[in-house]
Amino acid sequence: MMEPAMRLGWRGLLMALLLCPMIAFASWSGPETIIQGGWGPHDDQFGFSSNEIADQFPRDILVISSGRIIIADWQNDLLKIYNSDGTLMKAFSWPGQGMVELDSERIVCFKWNEKTKTERIGVVSLTSGEWLWVDKDRAFNSSKATVVVEEGKIFVWDGLSNGYQYSTEGKQLKTHTVKPEALGLVKRVKAGLNKFRYTVRYPGKIFSFASENKFSRLAKDSAGYVYGTTKVDRGEEFGAFQVSGYSLCGKLMGEVRFPVTRFEPVAEEKQRVNRERPRAVINEYGEPVIAPNGDVYAWKRTPDSYGVLKWTRRDDPAVLPGPDAPEGLTVTTSDNGLSLTWKASPQDPGCVTGYEIDRAPAANGPYTALAVVEAGKRRYTDATATAETIYYYRVRARAGHYGSSYTPAMLGVKGE
């Protein structure tokens, strides 16, 4: 089941929206409904309650590396685990809050203690539903705390000025008074009119990118992309969630814009009387959840149903995630062979890790890799060039296993 949801990239594509409202754009397709059920206490239903302030229903969703979808159905006191196709796998009793993947069989979360009215960090088995360990010495506020798992360690930041590091078996390894990089250190500065420059630091990775969006949340996937979540602040789609994906080199890889949440209209005089009462929902969409592979999920609810939507990530071959290409390649004769020089990629310094030099006997190839030089270098001498032989060279920047496009091929001939 598909719903209109994708955001078009740039001008001229507005007509496509009018002609084909269910088309997929950029790097995601969808959404499709993965899980669907009504309201109630049964396996194929979800808990719901309402009071004068807000409606209560499952808002906490986790998607783990195996593709399984986990929903915390607090109203029914259940943790529901679904296969990637949306079929229910199992359900456990659930007195917890918050969920972060530890591995394919365990999640990190906060255990609620009804007697003390406190939350404690711990690990739950997805096989048995049992708490494998709980830190009984320290209480947290799950609505303010941040939890990540990095390199086999659990990092918890209390949202104030204290951080804690645990082993996967529950041993406290370290305390922090400065937020560690494992949690993602975000710096946002103004970069002109209605534009921001973001720098996001993780262990061994620094993302830097510019955007017009003021992101409320940033997250990374396992493939080396970072995602910003915001809400549309103007136009007919005001209030709709939007996800923007960026490569390590700061390139915008694509965007997903959710449908708009819609409420029943309320007469002005009735609205004044019931100012604090939640408005009746036509359809509402939850905050985006980024899966480890870059797929995007969210809950959707209507007066009669609850479901989980999925936008599937599909890389656009026309958008290279690596750095921009170097420019100005020249080839000249030197005492030691043929000397190559070029202008650095715009992402050097930045995500560039080196430059790859290729050589061929003709402009159209075949090219073979000749050498790789480290970032910051703008010169290479081909000492293997044979006298009075024609060679063609090309250079590209690399960021890990991602490469830029190549420079135009340049000819070189070594003299006698």
Largest sheet: 7 strands, mixed
Proportion of residues in extended strands: over 45%
* Overall structural domain count: 2
Helix content: under 10%
The Cα radius of gyration reads: 26 Å
Termini gap: 70 Å
* Shape assignment: elongated
- Unreliably modeled segments: 1-26, 269-277
Per DSSP, the total helix count is: 2
Structural class, from helix and strand content?
mainly beta
Strand segment count:
36
Mean of pLDDT: 88
Quickly list its features.
mainly beta, 2 domains, 416 residues, Immunoglobulin-like, 3% helix
Present the secondary structure layout.
Blueprint: H1 14-19, E1 28-39, E2 45-46, E3 49-50, E4 55-56, E5 60-63, E6 69-73, E7 78-82, E8 88-93, E9 96-103, E10 106-113, E11 118-125, E12 131-134, E13 146-150, E14 153-157, E15 163-167, E16 172-176, E17 185-190, E18 196-202, E19 205-211, E20 217-220, E21 225-231, E22 241-247, E23 252-257, E24 262-263, H2 268-273, E25 281-285, E26 289-290, E27 296-301, E28 306-313, E29 327-334, E30 337-343, E31 354-360, E32 368-374, E33 379-382, E34 390-399, E35 402-403, E36 410-413
Parallel strand pairs: 1-2
Antiparallel strand pairs: 1-28, 3-4, 5-6, 6-7, 7-8, 9-10, 10-11, 11-12, 13-14, 14-15, 15-16, 17-18, 18-19, 20-21, 21-22, 22-23, 24-25, 25-27, 26-27, 27-28, 29-30, 30-33, 31-32, 31-34, 34-35, 34-36
